[in-house]
Amino acid sequence: MNGVLKNRSLIIMAISESVSSVGSWITMMAVFSLVIFKGEGSVTESGLIYLVGLLPALVFSPVAGWLCDRYDRKKLMILSEILSGLAVSGIIFTESITLLYVLLALQAISGSIMTPARQSSVPQVVDHEQLTQANAFLQQISSVVKIFGPVLAGGVLAVMNAHQAVILDVVSYFLSAGILFLLPKLIPPKQNKQTEKSEHKEKWTAQFSQLLHLDSQIKLLFGMAFMAIMGIVSIDILASIFTRDVLFSGESYFGLLIGMIGLGTLLGALTLMLGKKASHPWRDVISGFAIMAILPASMAAGYHINNLAFMRFLVIPICIIAGFGMGRKLVQDNTLIQTLSPAAMLGRVSGLYQSTIIAAQLIGTILTSAVVPSLIPVDAFFVLVALLILAVSVFGFFYYLKIKGIKKVSTVRLEE
Q1: How many whole angstroms from its chain centre is CA 324?
Q2: Which of 83, 100, 186, 413 is the residue whose CA sits 20 to 30 A from 235?
Q3: Which phi and psi angles does 30 have, rounded to 5°?
Q4: Rounded to whole angstroms, how far apart are CA atoms 61 and 356?
């Protein structure tokens, strides 16, 4: 742990991420203030705020990953922050909702460079055996921002109007870019000339196909991540309904539950960072995913438990436990991507992973909205989500054992 906390480059990336993330929360709250709370925004316009952020990133993330395998990742991170700051600055001066959506889309495109650039940079600044602790440290920073960012943003909007508040986000982006200048050069690993020439001749579709034929463990990781995000999104969408209809509580208690999940995520990452023995990444990914099933299962049970005080008490530790599993899974997802991906393709794999996550968010949102409650009651849907999470966890466990078994047989045959 001490090595991670003394790693100058990792600390710089963590500070940069926290600064820009807090600013992003301010802009998100400001946009909702302009469109929904102080405008005449409908459910459709509220959904568009998310869509204009997700769709451009879904399309551009693979391109961003390709850039991260070709150019200095430090410069790409700085460029991402500067372009995002310029896009967001337009919100300060516009009253047009249409232009607001365009600016958010531009910010999503420039921001999509940051995740694969940062993810592919971590193995360059820390030793291989410290990857789990480094990812756990970055996850803790992210969790803290998710807990306190919305609160801080709400406080800012209480003393400033929405357009003034966005100025702080613009400042945060340029401040983050300035902090990133302190990093050393992060040149991606060079490929041999033959590979480089062949890739220039290959079409993008051929390179995409190459990514899909990577290590079986990477494909398993992508599949489990896709299902996990779909489950999380469906829970997110219905959690407010659960809070209102089952717990008979409002937005304050809902915010408390979100905070408890964030606390659990923080604790999950912290245990990985402080652990004296190296933790097996796949064990954490599979068990962490399975632990998350406790949340939708408890929410389904809540519809049939008539003791309101008991449910209000029970749901708090349940959220912490589910967040704990999520935190360990998220950390080890990153570790596995960084260790299993070919060094020369890490940027592209990270970009494709980001697109997978975004696709899961979109599909989960559309699917949940389409079937609940018109086709499936809320409590039954929670049961299905819990069963799906457990089924995918069991499948992941046995599929991983199958992969390891095949590799052992191949190794024995080579030795013979």
Answers
A1: 15
A2: 100
A3: -65, -40
A4: 9
Q: Are 66 and 344 spatial neighbours (Cβ–Cβ below 8 Å)?
A: no
Average pLDDT estimate for 160-166: 86
Q: Is the pLDDT of residue 192 over 50?
A: no
281-291 helix and 378-415 helix, angle to the nearest 10 degrees: 160
Alpha carbon distance 177, 180 (integer Å): 5
Handedness of CA 359, 365, 371, 377 (dihedral sign): positive
Sign of CA dihedral 231, 306, 370, 256: negative
The string of pLDDT tens digits covering residues 273-318 is 887 777 889 999 999 999 999 999 999 999 999 899 999 999 999 9
- What average pLDDT score do residues 17-25 get? 88
- Measured distance CA(303)–CA(223) in Å, rounded: 31
Mean pLDDT of the chain: 84
Q: Which residue has the higher pLDDT, 51 or 220?
A: 220
**Looking at domain 1-181, what is its CATH homologous superfamily?**
MFS general substrate transporter like domains (1.20.1250.20)
**pLDDT band at residue 205 using 50, 70 and 90 as cut-offs:** low
Return the closest-CA partner of residue 165 out of 260, 37, 53, 13: 37
CB 287 within 8 Å of CB 327? no
Domain chopping of the chain, boundaries: 1-181, 215-340+372-405
Is the CB of residue 305 less than 8 Å from the CB of residue 343? no
CB neighbours of 13 closer than 8 A, spacing ≥ 6? 118, 121, 122, 125, 138, 180, 183
Token readout for 235 is: 């829970």
What lies within 8 Å, CB to CB, of 47 at 6+ separation is: 365
Does the pLDDT at position 171 exceed 60?
yes
Tokens at residue 16, please? 């940069």
pLDDT (tens digit, 9 = 90+) per residue, 385-410? 999 999 999 999 999 988 877 655 44
Alpha carbons 49 and 64: distance in angstroms, whole number: 22
Cis omega (within 30 of 0) for bond into 373: yes
What tokens were used for 256?
A: 């408390």
Query: Among residues 45, 145, 21, which one has the least CA distance to residue 100?
Result: 45
For the chain, the farthest-separated pair of C-alpha atoms sits apart, in whole angstroms, at 74
Q: Which residue has the tokens 């952020």?
A: 53
